[in-house]
Amino acid sequence: MADDTVFRTMLFDFYGELLTEKQREYFDLHCNSDLSLAEIAEQTGISRQGVWDIIKRAEGTLRGIEEKTGLMRRFSERRDAILEIESDLKTLCRITEGQARDLAETALAKLKLLED
Q1: CA atoms of 38 and 91, how far apart (whole Å)
Q2: Which of 4, 51, 79, 107 is 20 to 30 A (C-alpha) from 94?
């Protein structure tokens, strides 16, 4: 369940601006602010079913965009690769000396710049 929540939050972070204003608002209230359908319905003056329909349509749109672009997938793969390279470089810095160590530390510093 937590993974699905994180996935929805990432979908919203990556593609939320592509939703309609109403979809963006309701999806944000439900997934990020953790409001129930009833609470959103009460705030907005529509039925719980109406809120549910809007949120489901928004999620479908977000998932469809991710399927087509793969931006989140590539981001996650890149982040994982960076973490692995960073770990390897830290190990290399610990076990080497001289010019090899300097080179590994320089590469590690460059990698840190990519993360920012």
Answers
A1: 52
A2: 79
